[in-house]
Design brief:
Length: 477
Amino acid sequence: MNSARTRALGGEPATQMHYARKGLVTEQMRFIGNNEKVDPDLIRAEVARGRLVIPANIHHEALDPMGIGLTLSCKINANIGNSAVSSEVDGELRKLDTAVKLGADTVMDLSTGGAIDEIRKAIISRSRVPVGTVPIYQVVSELDSIEAMTADDLIDMVEHQAKQGVDYMTLHAGVLLRHLPLARKRITGIVSRGGSLLAAWMLARRRENPLYVHWDKILDICRRHDVTISAGDGLRPGCLADASDAAQFAELETLGELTMRAWEKDVQVMIEGPGHVPMDQIAMNVEMQQRICHEAPFYVLGPLVTDIAPGYDHITSAIGAALAGQAGASLLCYVTPKEHLGLPNEQDVRQGVIAYKIAAHAADVARHRPGARDRDDELSRARFDFDWERQFQLSLDPETARAMHDETLPAEYFKSAEFCSMCGPKFCSMQTKYRLDGVEEVLAEVEGSGATERLTTLGNPAAVPAAPLASRPAPRH
Ligand code: SF4
């Protein structure tokens, strides 16, 4: 679909933000408005304001555009890509297909192993969702050491990937020399790959972050190809103890400054966020990002809400992602069960995407987005009607839902049975015999017998006398 714009503009260098600010509703905005049932002119206004991004590189022809911002539904990203020890083109394309089939809204190709260009070309030509990258990974993989990198290597790689059709790029331009001492007292130091590479380069070369120094050159490239900048959080916390510290927020201040400079050139920006954050600090982190970065969309990496569950970090992080989404994050980067342990395989991708579809949807419901709960209500009705087929269809992962039902009751007969193997036919509480038919008559009869006051009290919490203060639990501080 994106090719329509390329033809319409005749290759003219302009971003969605440029058109939005000129008052033009683009094909991409209309497409998104139609998909999400949102007025395209509202999408235009939000893009012009910087509160919504449409990552849509003009060279990514297979793309079906999508938007990231608070006006739209909460989105999820799936990371794919190889490492030096695992995977190749076919394996990465299978991961892409699995992620998109299960509902990933964007994918990031984080390849750091061999055949990086080949893998990226294959992913971009196949992907109808936006593709993101971290350009410094490819720079470093092609050098003997990070110290050998020059600023031009980095800038040239941004341009190379922009020409390939990458829709958004993580650029850790906010990690500055003066921030580095702030990360020294942490338990886990700098855990962002991009952040640690740039910090090592800055210390070895005794120079400031080249992405920061050459930000205007980077912006000119992004403007020409309409690459959305995903301003990386190179100093994100890598454990609960390091969350919300001075290093993290110092970098965020710099990202706020860089956002304004990008907007001056009509370059779209979203801001990446932590990482590992205790539940009680998540809403505060979202509020800080929104205030400091002028309401640019927030793209959170999890966050994990506890550090003690390696092997289950799709769960620890989906809890944090749901809370962040409810508080105002617009894009949730998935974490798979392999986090901290190894490169995700196709099954891990599946687990991660489903966990994050749940988190994003729960956030949409909690934010009262129009129609967000419709599917929940429809599935609940199907469940109450024992319409098992419809229940499977409406599930986020129909294959798994069906397989689990089939595990104990595979026969077709049981696909309309008024029970499953959980409680069995005798104790299934949803059977018609347990429904509340005739309750009004019973109530009228009981009221007539003089038990009215007790029933009224039971159904009305306001009528329950308050417990004496001394018997209440003491407040915790
Ligand atoms: S048997 Fe139990 S779990 Fe299964 S449908 Fe009935 S109430 Fe639900």
